[in-house]
Hints:
The complex is a heterodimer. Chain A has helices at 49-56, 75-79, 97-107, 112-125, 141-153, 171-182, 219-225, 243-247, 264-272, 294-305, 319-327, and strands spanning 11-20, 23-33, 38-42, 64-69, 82-85, 159-163, 211-216, 228-233, 236-241, 253-259, 277-283, 286-291, 309-316.
Amino acid sequence: MSDTPSPAPAISVRELVVAYGDRRALDGVSLAVPQGTVVGLLGPNGSGKSTLLSVIAGLRPPQQGEVRVLGEGRRPARRRRVGVVFQESCLDPLMTLHETLWLHGRLFGLGGATLRRRIEELLEGFGLAERAREAVRTLSGGLRRRLELARALLPSPDVLLLDEPTTGLDPDSRRAFWELLRGTAAPPTEVGGMAGEPRSRGLSVRGRGLTILLATNDVQEAERECDTVAFLYHGRLVAQGTPAELKKGLRHDSVRIECIDGKAAALGSAVAGWPGVGRVTSADAVLHVTVDDASAFVPRLFQTAAEAVHAIRIEPSTLEDAYFELTGASVSAPEGEGTA
Amino acid sequence: MSGAALTVGAWGALLARDLRAFLRSRSQLSSSLLFPLMLLAVVGVGISEGLEPSRVRDGDYVTFLVPGIIVMTALFSSTFSSASFYQDRDSGMLKVFLVSPHSPAAILFGKSLGAITIGSVQALAVLAFASAVPAIDLAWQYGVGPSLLLALATVLGLNVLLSGLAQVLASRIRTMQGFHLVMNLVLFPLLFFSGAFFPLADLPGWLYGLALVNPLTYAVDLLQLALYAEGESGYLGIGVDLAVLGSLAAVLFGWGLRRHPMVD
């Protein structure tokens, strides 16, 4: 059924309001996620990402608004089509891997030979087959995440909700996680391994029309993995588009300048007037400057103010900059810039 | 798969999981039986021999104690199992259950099956032990079959009641420590005022009054009628007991299912 073109978006959310006491975690969010796409929700902690996912997952009823998954609004029916990987690990450490998957399959109405085959397939495909009879507590963080992904995919959901799935994982585990999700992973090893020949396991994101909504505050992850990205800020959706669309109109490069003590303020107001310079922000002794062309800006900086500069770093503009441009807040470090 | 089959399958899986966890935990398995049996032996024999009680049949306090110890076993066991609700919440498993295609009430029902089953089996294990010991002289006044059936019904009803109570408390108390504190605060007095340790018939009025508002009293009364008593005078009676225990169990259990579980 997921192959037939359907006008219904995979996820459709309208005017969602969720309040905890006086604080509105979601303040009128509307979002449509087309089938078979990967959509990122980008925002700092507390911007409403987790709340939005838990409402879509049917874990929490909204005070106002409507959620539909493939046109289905009723909660138990909706949940049948949705797989969730929560932000924190949600596993029983004393159960074995096999038991974990079996229980989940039973909850979703799978059973018998079908369930056995599906569990074997997933354990095999996720490089967990050898550990199947071991307790979950013996798994590393990366393998636990992998098990949780396998569990979410077990009932063959149409929609997958991922809440910061790679937070806290080492880079190898992160890569392995996404390789698995894209269905192109080589038989994975504990450290992730190098990608070998692509294998089709029926898990391929685009191949089978699986729709993914990914909450993240990892800008690179969002740029790399998502077709479109939505910015959440204080429970509101402030922008949505492809990474390229969202970055359109931004200055090209971002220069981070660590200044000698006490020189940041003066340097900041000096460079702000230069041609090709966009936003200048400072935190303690660090200046962030967005510029059209770092190769013109940096020589000038050293000609005029070398004595004030301790170190610089040049980066191409990212969604982080786009987010800042729109909201004046940072995605990854809500407590203040400078700390990054 | 139809909705009903889906739900029953889920209940079976949740029950199987809790039973497996219980059987795996050897310490829980042994301590939950050893403690009641030890109490039965030590307190029972100690009081029988040391105090020579004249108001229990033949001065045999051990046999008198059997119904009370069965109730106590169910009490401890089901409280202990209900703690698994907290473990599931803290581990995040409860969230995973709640995003499956079942109502919260259906999930809570499935979760309580484990506590009810484990509590009932343990209570009946104590009964099996007591019937096997020659020195313990159970009367089985309605005949072994009917008396056993009555005991089964009582143990089951009691465990349903306790599971409902635990669920109601768990929806209001955030931490497992708090839950255990409240359970101990509630359960020990309930046990002491239930007639589990002494016959109610000759108690002073205030104590008798307290016993009558205690749900456990009716379970102890039923078990004493089924297992220990010879005759029904001095007891509350099967009809009253079943009515009170049954309706309380239904109300508390139903109430417990309607509480939305605290997820975080």
